[in-house]
Amino acid sequence: MVFVVTALETIAASKDARKRKPLGDATQRALSTIKSEGDPTQTNPEILFLPLRLATEASAVATVTVALGCIGKLISYSYFSVPSETQTGSPQAPPLIERAIDTICDCFQGEATPVEVQLQIIKSLLAAILNDKIIVHGAGLLKAVRQTYNIFLLSKSSANQQIAQGTLTQMIATVFERVKVRLAMKETRVIASKSPLGNGVANGSDAHLNGIDSPNLAEDGDRDGEIPDSASLAAGDRPVEKENQPKITLQSFENRKSFDDDRIRDNEPTMVTRVKKTRVPPRSASGTDIPVISVNQDLSEGEYEDEEDEFFIKDAFLVFRAMCKLSTKQLRVEEAVDIKSQGMRSKLLSLHIIHNILHNQAAVFVSPFATIRSSNTAEPTTFVQAIKQYLCLSMSRNGASSVTRVFEVSCEIFWLMLKHLRGMLKKEIEVFLKEIYLAILDKRAAPVFQKQYIMTILGRLSADPRALVEIYLNYDCDRTALDNMYQRVIEHISRISSTPVPITALQQSNYQEQHVKSSKGNSDWQNRGILPPSLSTATLHSTPEVDQGFPPELALKQQSLECLVETLRSMVNWAQQGIADSAVKFGDPQSRNSVEDLRESLDTRENGVAASPHVHSLELQAAPGTPIADDDPEELERVKRRKRALDVAIRRFNEKPKRGLKVLLSEGFIKSDSPKDIATFLISHDQLDKKALGEFLGEGEAENITFMHAFVDSMDFAKTRFVDALRRFLQSFRLPGEAQKIDRFMLKFAERYITGNPNAFANADTAYVLAYSVIMLNTDQHSVKMKGRRMTPEDFIKNNRGINDSADLPDDYLRGIYDEIAHNEIVLDTEREIAANLGMASQPAGGFTTNISQVLATVGRDLQREAFAQASEEMANKTEQRFKSLLKAQRRGASNTVLAKYIPATSFKHVGPMFEVTWMSFLTALSGQAQESNDLETIKLCMEGQRLAIRIACLFDLENPRQAFVASLARFTNLYNLSEMKAKNIEALKILLEVAQHEGNLLKESWRDILTCISQLDRFQLISTGVNEEAVPDVLRIHVQPRGPPPGRRSLQVPNRPPNRSSISVANYRSEIAEESRSAEMIRGVDRIFTNTANLSGDAIVHFVKALTQVSWQEIQSSGQSDSPRTYSLQKLVEISGYNMTRVRFEWTNIWQVLGEHFNQVGCHSNTNVVYFALNSLRQLSMRFMEIEELPGFKFQKDFLKPFKHIMSNATQVQVKDMVLQCLNQMIQARGQNIRSGWRTMFGVFTVAAREPYENIVNLAFNNVTDVYNSRFGVVISQGAFADLIVCLTEFSKNMKFQKKSLQAIETLKASVPKMLRTPECPLSTRSTVAKDAPQAGSLPRQPSRQTQEEQYWFPVLFAFHDVLMTGEDLEVRSRALNYLFDTLIKYGRDFPQDFWDTLWRQLLYPIFMVLKSKSEMSKVLNHEELS
Predict the structure, then answer these.
(1) Which helix (H) or strand (E) holds 273?
(2) Strand-pair partners of 902
């Protein structure tokens, strides 16, 4: 410690030592003592301290500097901090360490203090605080902090100001860092105490996260008394007791105390704590012992540590409280406009330090182990609970500041509260959002810089998925919340984004340059835990308004758009991460596959990586002691539905009060229909429209009057000034304009006022007349409709003569009322707020001269700035008042107060409901910006937002949002107006194709919009390659009613009415756009959509096919009778059928129900070119299907060939019928061996052809049937189509126009009997003795049948003869049929069973004989088709 001797020798040699004897003597005594003892460390500290203290009072700067430097070094070496073993001296003397700090602080004498001395004071104080061996607590710490703060404020040296600022930040950071160390040690002790068998680690972590079994469970402040059982109710479903839980407001912060700290004072004794295991050499001291932490000797080591911990936490509390108090000091007018003023710099420094603490020391605030005991109880209180009253007051005073720097740092503090403390400050954050930040966004006159900074904060919130979901859960799903905060935030952002800002291309370019520069800039103090910006007078400058080359509203608009897109991205990330975790948790392999599909579309290009819903971080923790509600999506959605139902009921009341009241009663929102319950509801819900409420209560019906009386009786005007009572009364509703209604209100008000204030007037009549008179005065003074002379004070006094029971009220009293009303209009706060938001200041009443004096008085003033400064002040006052009322409620009904539960977000299922309540706001903003902007970056951002929105709508199956966003995107492609297409429309088209590729399984009915766009794109590609526009008509120009449109779709789909043809000239389309539409990327994108249909789910492919058939029909209808109709989508139907050929039969059955119906419709179109193409497509598909083997008992072939039968039956052109037969013939020739159930449909087609009046059709059909009969008879029998073959031949036999074919057919029928008996595939052949033919079916499996052999084979042939006989026209054919019928019966009937003979008699023979009896019975005879 040579420096001590050197310093003392320097002091001894100074002029001050020679001039001042006490200093010289003390210095010499100290030097001689050191020389005699040989070691300064063994010297009594008092002997060394005395000359140093006296030297600090010297006049020479050098002497003072040397003394201060030596004191600082001695403190660093812990020299002044250890007491002597034997105590001597006066017990009143302060501790030496405190006197040392006092000595250092006393050297600062304001701004006149030499610069060198200021610097040395800072160094020495920093040394005292940073000493980790002997730690100073209490008053000593606060003195050091305060003096450093004073040097920053008062020093004229900019360098010293900056050093003082840095030193102060370091001191306070050290205080909090020590607390963090102590908390970590305490957590370790708690874990160790819980794990005697080694199981405590997990328990300890649980305690840390949830505050379980931690010392702070019996928390004070807002929670006086025990938590009642009702706290266990579901979040947001508690009864809203307005009497015990009035709304929290900003004004509540003014006197709100969440923690009793009356005994925790700034001048607490200075304490020191020593680091353990530090050996201290013994030395004597003259003076009192330094106070050390003294605790009960009976305490265990853990309890001793807990006692010591509180000293560290108390230091942090004292420092934080001091900074909050400094930040709340009101600025004088001149200080507010001067950024370099002491008051302004003090406010800025204190706010920056608060921000720095919250940014870097969040762990202290969220730790359940950081507790401090209040003055009125020994129970521990959490650190956040202790400091929040000061933090909230600071925020309420500064949050709406009109000073840019103050507003910015206040916003940053609010963001840290939102980020780290939202679980602990649930109600407080709600108030700040509603009363300050959203209120500023509402105000038209609010400065753009404020709105921009708020948007920056909301942008950070939007990038935090967990925070977003928790805002929704804890406010939108809580019936006790002030408002639906998540919904309001999104609506505000959307409104700003949708506000038109007229700009030029140059301004847009300037903005883009500025945006790129700002995004590349280094993050500053807001985003990094670094020192606050320098607040020295040299570096602080008023920021001039620089013209950046673009309106600031443009930057705000772009910020809001980015914020919306980031919100959607966060919601997608949260949902996809949750779905992925669920799939892994339940081990569903199919889900895992789908999760991989989900992840493909996760955009991680910019800020796209989601935080896992299960990551534990600071943000997860709610306040220890705050009830944590379970994240139960179903329960919360029930609460949300209930809240939404209340909103709907209130909206109905606002429209029609009587109907609305019935809904409120029926839904149970009002307990009963008693006037008291109804009045309680009406007075406690701010959402009710004041005008509607006034009209309802003012009605003259007895029931309404009863409600009004109960309403007024619920107000208490005791000990309230008359005008104040009238104001409060008229704030609860809007006074109607009708005189009778006003009269009823005033009568009841007067009665109620006199009840509370019986000595105010002679009787209630006085109150009634005066109230009426005040209302008339208010109208006279402030109504813009009033013309001419206004009432004077004398007029008002004259009007109220003799109203107090024939006596006069005092003139001064009436004049006071006049002045108050004249200067402060009675007007609803809501109306005043709306006017302020719209920038409409209320104009004071007055005549011409008043207006002139007003103009002269405002010359040279910035009225807008003054107006908003006043508005900011009003916001702050309102916020404080709200918190004040909350505190009163908590104190009045502490035992009944139910704690607001905080719900931490864990489930991904909330994203759907979140999007459902805000999707229209997103759509308005994203589609609006896209329409009005031509900036490609903005367009890409809008398109990205729409893509993310569609993603959410698809994930949660939200039909209306999905259809609306897809339709909006499709409309924005502008493919119906090619001449107007721009680069931004191509971007939309790309996103649409991307959506189709990634969301295919979930698009459902929205496929139609996408496939329509693809069809239109194909049209554009054809036109751009030189095809005539008339040859490729626009599908959107026809009025086609889609087949079976889904309900509610018309309002959401792309409109079918584009601009008139005359207004469009496609010849003027842009070449670069056409080229882009034909690019390889675009073509590949479209192709991928169709090829990927093979990967769609079973339901999704049906939706896809349905949409494609609808678009195909639109194309065909738009083509009319063109020789080259549009068949793009029809071709694609065939293509995707090929891609999906390997699907299971069950899925194909559903697909073919759609496809078959489409081919039925297209095949009957009047344009034969369309029909030819459809038939050819149908033939190709059928060929492909027949390549797949069909098992016995199935009928898919039968179903997919039905369109041929439908077309044959309904087509009007002979060529079409001919082509149908040709197609079937080709299939028989090429795939005959694979035909199974299809034979039945084919014979059905030939049966239809047999009735045709066209000879070539009949001949072609008969030839086809004959070929099958001759070459595949055994196959037909084995596949169960024998009866269909016989029916077909029967129809040919009955053809009256071509007798030759009829006779051939009846002969073939006759020959079918012996042929059947010769065919090995027929079971009857086993009974026959005739030679058998060679088998034709080979190893083909036989189709199962429930009929007997006779019914399968004999009955169709016999009934065929009967049918020809009974219903045929040609006599020759009928005669042969009769002969062949009886010949067959005679020849083969002996082998028929008796039951079969009974059937033959009833159905065949008996009807024939009945004809002989009565010819009229012929009409009742069944034909073959009816029986089959």
Answers:
(1) strand 271-274
(2) 628
Name residue, tokens 């979901």: 469
- Return the number of other C-beta atoms located less than 10 Å from residue 867's C-beta: 15
Q: How far apart are CA 459 and CA 464, in angstroms?
A: 9
**Cβ count within 10 A of residue 609:** 11
- The CB density around residue 877, as the number of other CB atoms within 10 Å, is 17
839 three-state secondary structure = coil
Residue 645 and residue 666 in contact, taking contact as beta carbons nearer than 8 Å: no
Q: At what angle do helices 61-76 and 2-12 cross, to 10 degrees?
A: 160
- The C-alpha atoms of residue 367 and residue 624 are separated, in whole angstroms, by 8
Residue type, position 239, single letter = P
Decide: helix, strand or coil at residue 863: helix
Provide the CA 1363 distance to its chain's centre, in angstroms. Answer: 72
| Ramachandran category for residue 287: left, alpha or beta (phi over 0 → left; psi -120 to 50 → alpha) | left
Contact 495, 564 (CB under 8 A): no
| 136 beta partners | 272
Q: What is the 3-state secondary structure (H, E, C) of 388-427?
A: HHHHHHHHHHHCCCCCHHHHHHHHHHHHHHHHHCCCCCHH
Burial class from Cβ neighbours inside 10 Å (0-12, 13-18, 19+) for residue 1211 reads buried
CB 901 within 8 A of CB 272: no
Euclidean distance between CA atoms 172 and 359, whole angstroms: 13
Residues 424 and 880: their CA atoms lie apart, in Å, by 19
Task: Print the SS3 string covering 1188-1228.
Answer: CCCCCCCCHHHHHCHHHHHHHHHCCCHHHHHHHHHHHHHHH
- Cβ neighbours of residue 304 closer than 8 Å, sequence gap 6 or more: 295
Say what the pLDDT of residue 923 is: 95
Please give the helix or strand (H or E) that residue 366 lies within, else none: helix 362-366
The alpha carbon dihedral of 1280, 1281, 1284, 1289 has a sign of negative
DSSP tag of 1403: I
Which residues of the chain are modeled with pLDDT < 50?
84-90, 197-245, 277-297, 522, 588-625, 841-861, 890-891, 893-898, 1039-1066
pLDDT for the residue 172: 93
Q: What pLDDT is stored for residue 782 in this prediction?
A: 83
CA distances from 510 to 447, 544, 563, 710, 907 (A): 21, 19, 21, 63, 43
Distance, CA of 991 to CA of 1002 (rounded, Å): 16
How high is the pLDDT of residue 833?
A: 66
pLDDT at 1093: 94
Cα 1140 to Cα 540, 1106, 1145: the distances in Å are: 71, 15, 11
Cα–Cα distance measured from residue 616 to residue 620, given in angstroms and rounded to the nearest whole number: 6
Quick one: how far is CA 232 from the chain centroid?
A: 27
CA terminus-to-terminus distance, the chain: 122
C-beta of residue 465 within 8 angstroms of C-beta of residue 610: yes
Q: What's at 92, amino acid-wise?
A: Q
Q: How far apart are CA 1226 and CA 1229, in angstroms?
A: 5
Give the distance from CA 1423 to its chain's centroid: 68
Q: Which residues pair with 88 in a beta bridge?
A: 287
Residue that has been written with the tokens 């409104």 in this structure? 495
The whole-angstrom separation of Cα 1425 and Cα 1362 is 12
The DSSP symbol for 222 reads T
Backbone angles phi, psi at 981, to 5 degrees: -70, 135
Q: For residue 582, what is the enclosing H or E element?
A: helix 552-586
Count the residues in the chain. 1428
Q: What is the CA radius of gyration of the chain?
A: 46
Phi, psi (rounded to 5 degrees) for 1414? -150, 120
**1054 — alpha (psi -120 to 50), left (phi > 0) or beta?**
beta
| pTM, two decimal places | 0.78
Q: Is 138 left (phi over 0), alpha (psi -120 to 50) or beta?
A: left
Q: Virtual CA dihedral for 1060, 1062, 1066, 1069, nearest 10 degrees?
A: -90
